[in-house]
Amino acid sequence: MSFIFSIRRNVSLLCRKYAHTRFISTEIQPNRNTDVYFEENIGHTPVMPNEVVEALNPQDNKVFIDMTFGAGGHTRHLLQAAKLKLFCLDRDPCAYEKAVKLADEYGDAVTPLLGKFSEIQPLLTKHGIQPNSVDGILIDAGCSSMQMDSSVRGFAISRNGPLDMRMDGNRFPDQPTAADVLNSLDVPSLVKIFKIYGEEKQAKKIAQALFDAKYMLKTINTTHELAELVQSTLGSEQRFDKLQRTAHVATKIFQALRIFVNDELNELNYAMEMAHLFLKPGGRIAVLTFHSLEDRIVKRHFLGIHMDEPVSHTLRQKYKNAFAYHSLDDVNEVTAKRWHPLHKNVITPTNDEIESNPRSRSAKLRVAEKVLETPE
């Protein structure tokens, strides 16, 4: 797990265009002419909205944070359930604009925030939100449907467009696009990205084909160019999704690039830390994840397992003889639970929801309460 969290930093040093990302103040308003990526007619269906509302149990006059606003589907369901004060965060300037429009509709009940998870602390502090003061938090991890459905964003195999994949749009001009990564890194670096972030078994073969393409004066700049190269490299190999439908062989490559470009795993890990910081003791968090890498991070936080611990080592195994080597206070500090999961197993979409919204098929919902702090 520690390798997952360090690979992006190590590999990014090899990317010629990946200079240190400049911080662009979140107070700057998005440029409505140059940063508009979403077609206005793109719809969005939130995943498990009823389950999310039930899990968070919103009550009037409580303070909530939607840390992944997107198109605002979950936010609207929460606002319909109770009279909340809701802070709506998103790193995407286009999603932020949608949050601004929702604020126009709901007034002071909605406060839009533009920023990544790693930028949330100063944003909340500016608005007077202190640690241990929030009643509920929602995280809907990964790429939004709007981003997937916009061809100019470059996230989807099915929509031809520039191979961009930057969730932040143009907020950080020095941030490399997916095309920059593919056309700048060597084979070992690409293999690491595809294996770690995409769990792709054919990572080496695909990485070599991409690298070879550069020497044939063929840079990869669009989604269809990448998809076609992977398809031609793997030939007649067939893959299937969880609904046993045919899946494109480049799906995991697209996932890997997206996670790498946006530093998604480190950001999610930080989001979990910030959620624990700002929630009240007894406050609830609901987290939707869509692949195993995301879910492992959330599960480890809820179970109190450090990110550097081997997967096979549970806390019970690690500390069952700890009293023989450490003081009681030391052991209690390390093993103290920070979260109380509310369900033994993950919550998954119903068959009806999967049929009506196939993108929900991989979703897992985990819910937990921040554990009451014990007095010193």
From TrEMBL:
Membrane-spanning ranges: none
GO BP: rRNA base methylation
InterPro entries: RsmH, SAM-dep_MeTrfase_MraW_recog, SAM-dependent_MTases_sf
Annotated spans, Disordered: 350-376
Example of a GO MF term: rRNA (cytosine-N4-)-methyltransferase activity
Amino acid composition bias (Basic and acidic residues), ranges on this chain: 366-376
Similarity field: Belongs to the methyltransferase superfamily. RsmH family.
Matches recorded under HAMAP family: 16SrRNA_methyltr_H
Name the UniProt record assigns to this protein: Methyltransferase-like protein 15 homolog
